[in-house]
Design brief:
Elements (H helix, E strand, L loop, with lengths): L3 H11 L5 H11 L7 H11 L37 E3 L3 E6 L9 H14 L3 E5 L20 H18 L4 E5 L6 H9 L11 H4 L7 E4 L5 E3 L2 E4 L14 H9 L3 E3 L6 E6 L5 E6 L18 E8 L5 E9 L2 E2 L1
Parallel strand pairs: 1-6, 2-3, 3-4, 4-5, 7-8, 8-10
Antiparallel strand pairs: 2-11, 6-7, 9-10, 11-12, 12-13
Helix pairs in contact: 1-2, 1-3, 2-3
């Protein structure tokens, strides 16, 4: 595990023109187990830049051209967020699934998908949003009989145990979806004083490090070679289209992309004027199909496998699941 100074130096080298406060927020958000406060992260960034005063300048570890962000007019520090895609590269098989909505998961479809995926021998698992439901933290009308947060957490940890047992060597990446983000939104609205307590963040609350699970938040796009992967809530308005979710995604993305969120198995392909082919996919869910808030819908169960080569080319297998069988 890298120490705080090494992590700070890595960020400054990667984003030399970004303000120290912006990099500190990124450093703090990405390393809650090692960095307890935003001010600690800011001090680490300023230290490697040699910006903590003359007496401490000898502690700087970067050359002078990395020590000052671009700001020739001496404008005030910006709160602009460093937002970049999460990259998955190299030849590999990636199992992609989402919308499990624990504890409202559908056991037959989830079982069928994981057993099918096991046979594909994936190198990476991408849980593409809405692993948890967080029903009790919703801003919508709640069912008083629904399971509480502690119960959802216990069920999710049990799921992680199963996942690690089935895929002991796989890289596991967890992308936060709109339901997963309910935790942070709840703290923002109801208890902002607790936001600085790292133990209450999703990563620590669900013990992701114990299972070797990487977290992708901030609505970051994931790129696997030439394929862009979203949960689906990143756009300010739904990508659902008049025909299907995949066509709606095409109209927004204008490039090949894959999305969960809409609980529909669909695919849409069009060719550009240059003869290039663009294909978009939407994946089915692995949760109950007829919840009380939307009993009539056109949802379907499903999951996918993406085969990626060393040059970034990919092949998507978008599977439907019906009555506990992968089709």
């Amino acid at each position: 595990m890298k120490n705080i100074r090494a992590l700070a130096e890595e960020l400054v080298r990667k984003f030399p023109d970004s303000p120290s406060l912006t990099l500190a927020k990124r450093l703090f958000a990405d390393n809650p187990e090692q960095i307890s406060t935003l001010e600690s992260a800011r001090t680490a960034i300023r230290t490697v830049r040699g910006a903590t005063g003359k007496k401490a300048r000898h502690l700087a570890t970067l050359p002078r051209d990395h020590q000052k962000p671009f700001n020739p007019l001496r404008l005030p520090d910006s709160d602009e967020t460093v937002w970049e895609p999460f990259i998955i590269s190299g030849e590999q098989k990636i199992g992609i699934f989402g919308d499990v909505h624990i504890p409202y998961h559908n056991i037959p479809s989830l079982t069928a998908y994981l057993q099918w995926l096991k046979k594909q021998n994936p190198d990476t698992l991408l849980i593409n949003g809405d692993l948890c439901d967080f029903h009790g933290l919703s801003r919508f009308v709640k069912n008083p009989k629904a399971r509480n947060l502690a119960g959802e957490r216990d069920a999710t940890l049990q799921f992680f145990e199963v996942l690690r047992r089935m895929f002991p060597k796989a890289r596991i990446i967890l992308k936060l979806g709109n339901h997963d983000e309910r935790l942070e939104i709840f703290l923002n609205l109801k208890a902002p004083e607790l936001l600085d307590i790292a133990e209450l963040g999703f990563e620590n609350l669900f013990k992701l490090s114990n299972y070797g699970i990487e977290l992708v938040g901030q609505k970051r796009i994931i790129r696997a070679g030439g394929l862009s992967i979203l949960h689906g809530h990143e756009y300010p308005t739904p990508v659902i289209g008049p025909v299907n979710a995949a066509r709606g995604l095409f109209l927004r993305a204008k490039d090949s992309a894959l999305v969960n969120h809409h609980h529909q198995v669909s695919e849409h392909t069009e060719s550009t004027i240059k003869g290039e082919m663009i294909t978009c996919w939407s994946l089915g869910c692995l949760c109950e199909l007829h919840p009380a808030y939307a009993p009539i819908n056109k949802w379907s169960h499903g999951g996918a496998l993406v085969e990626l080569d060393s040059e970034g080319n990919y092949e998507v297998t978008n599977k439907r699941i019906l009555h506990g069988k992968v089709l």
